[in-house]
Amino acid sequence: MTDTPHPAPAAGAPALRRGSLGTADIAFFVVSAAAPLTVMAGVAPLALLVGGIGAPAGYLAAGVTLTVFAVGFTTMSRHVRNAGGFYAYITRGLGRPAGFGAALLALLGYLGMNIGVFGLLGSATGDTVEALTGHRIPWLLPALIGLAVVWYGGFRSIDFGARLLGVLLLAETGILVLLAAAVLAEGGAHGLSAHSFAPGNVLTGGMPGVLAMAFAAFTGFESTVIYRREARDPDRTVPRATYLAVAFLGLFYAFVVWTVVQAYGDTEVVAAAAQDPGGLFFTAIDRYVGAWAADLMHVLIVTSILASLLAFHNATSRYGLALAEEGLLPRALGRIHPRHRSPYVSGLAQSLLALLVVAVFAAAGADPYTQLLLWVNTPGMLALVALQLLAAVAVPCWFRRRPGHGEGVLRTVVAPAVAAVLLTGALWLVIDHIGLLTGASDSVDLVLILIVPAVFALGVLYALRTRSRRPAVYAAFAAEPVAGSVAGSVAGSGGGAPVEAASPAAGAC
Known about the structure:
The protein has 22 helices and no strands. By secondary structure, it is mainly alpha-helical. The longest helix is centred in the middle third of the chain and has 36 residues, at about 290-325. It is globular, with a radius of gyration of 22 Å.
């Protein structure tokens, strides 16, 4: 590492590909990270078991909460051009120590959400091969193949990744739309009803558990800001992509779960989910569309997981790039490929770490789903929800110190405050119902939960150490790109709101 933060790039040095991503491209990355088909076929049956036929309303409630959060989040994105996303916003509003803690939480969140899913890829691929051929393959083989595919996708240009994710996302959402259309065309099992949204079915004792699962299903939607440097007209593209992603996920999740309720009937769907939760969607599409569609859904779950892995890989690589530019990670991680314009060293380091974790779990004989996936993903998911909460608090704190910012009170105070309250409730629900997400013992769940505050505290201590030993790095942390630099010219493209000075406010709210 170096004590010179944000060094001016050498003339002709490669940079991220400017103006490559439009609104739809960024939305594809975000929605793909959520893996809609995997969430629906793998988690929605459990939501129906816990919350009954009112489960679709839980996804709507989570979508509304995150839309409120997006109001303040995207408003601040027009003023803060640093590529660090969450940690940059939290630094501006809550100070550098909190920003350092947020930076480590972001790494934990995105690495955890990425690496753990290789266990799901191995398990789901094994299930698919067995369903189609009757033979079982070791989970490690598809996990290793997936590692290579995801590394290559991240190594190539962002345009390549956007096109690939667009195709995969259309395929996985298309099969769910096909199921929904067939159910609606036939009128469901006993005629269509809106009982899922009746207050008596929504306000039940199981709804907190449904909300915990629903919030987990949106994880990663906020990563739109990470692609700011590669977006066309980022002041407009990033907010539009954020709203588009969260609105699509909320409405789509609720609609698909509701149609599955109609496929079985209000009184039968919970019993069907209890009898065969893993087969709920496959049985429905087999009945309403045909066996060929069930086989195709098995295959598309694998591609859905691959799309999620690639989306999180790209986001994590860019976080690593930003932190290398800040001087918090080795400078080598900030190298950009001269041809593909990708953060290829950061991506390679991430893939090697994933390979190490997967190999350790495999050598220990761990289960790829209940241990590799759930034990690694859960702290990552908790970290990202905690970051959303910290960012919601940071928004009004920062705007309060910025008179003349030109934004309304609704966007800078009311919406972030409401979002902070709702996200506090969401984080509590997720922690309180962590057993639904992990299926682990209380002691394991406690360790998984405590990892998050421990990492944040480690970040704060790192900040204090950096302040005393590398004051230049500390002072410039989360600063705006220097005018005239490659990062600055890219980040500043698109016009929009004025940018603050290079050094962020250091005080807390």
